[in-house]
Amino acid sequence: MDNTQKLAFKESLKKMWKSDAFKAIAVLCIIALMSALILSVVHRYTIVDEEAVLREKVGEVYPSSPVTTSVDVSSYRNIDNSVILNAFVAEDGAYIILSKSKKAYNSGTGITLIVVIKEGIILCVQNYLSSETPGLGTRALKESYLSQYVGVEANALAVRDQVEIRDPNEQTVKIEYIGGATKSSTGVRISVTAAATFYIREAAK
Description:
The protein is α+β, with helices and mostly antiparallel strands. It has helices at residues 3-18, 20-61, 143-146, 154-157, 182-203; strands at residues 67-70, 82-90, 95-101, 111-118, 121-130.
């Protein structure tokens, strides 16, 4: 490149830097970078808040003993139609399990329960997240209904070799299903069964 070409190139660069189009592009790039930075910060603190909210809820559900350990569930093999979202172990050895059933009247949201199991016995079952039909499906999420699982042995509900949950009529534990809210009742059953299965598998390690 000779001197004339170099001068011409420099002039074109100067014009480009001074042009309104270039300034507009530069401003847009800066805005995009700032937006990405802000979103990453917000996302980070949102995750922290969600974890804090969950731990606070766990403390409310099981105030008997402080949570000391968070269980890694990332590689856990879930049984059909369920997901173990999170699990904690309290100082006294109780497992506090966040278990979601994909089957429910509103399958988009599903039914997520907090299930507390200690020494092989279900101590508590509480609704954590759901969007079942008010006045109908929500009856399966009331404490009066969920309490039928309290005192049941996790071993009696847990799924072992088979992946599918057995027919309710074939279960050794008889659980009441609410008429007109069978899908919600089934969703609760799946969620509790998934938590019991997780407990049995983890406790056996």
